[in-house]
Write a structure and sequence with these properties.
Strand content: 5-15%
Number of strands: 3
Strand order of the largest sheet: 1-2-3
Number of helices: 4
Amino acid sequence: MPALGVRTLLYVLHVWTCLYVCLRVCVCVHHSGQLYEKNANTDRFEVLTPKRTSLRHRVPEADEHMLSFIAYLLQVDPHKRPSAQHALQHPWFNVVYNE
C-alpha cells in the first residue's frame, strides 16, 4: 500500500469513526434494511427518511475515488457493509495524491 499523507489518513479515520458511531448508537437497522430512530418524545421507533442530497454535496472536497470509498462504507444493510479488513482493500487506498 502506498504511503498516505497523515492528514488524509486522519480524515478517513475520522469519517469512519463518525459513521460507525452514528450507525451503532443512534440508529437501528431492521432486517428489511430500513433505518429506524427512537423518538425521544414518544419513546417509539420511527422510520428515518433520508434527505434528498448527494454524497458529492456532503463532501465537496472528495474526488471520485474517495466518494466511492465512503459510499462503500455507508451501506445500510449490515450484510453488504464491509468489514474493516475488506474496507482496507478498496481501490481508493491505491490512489497516489500529490500533497
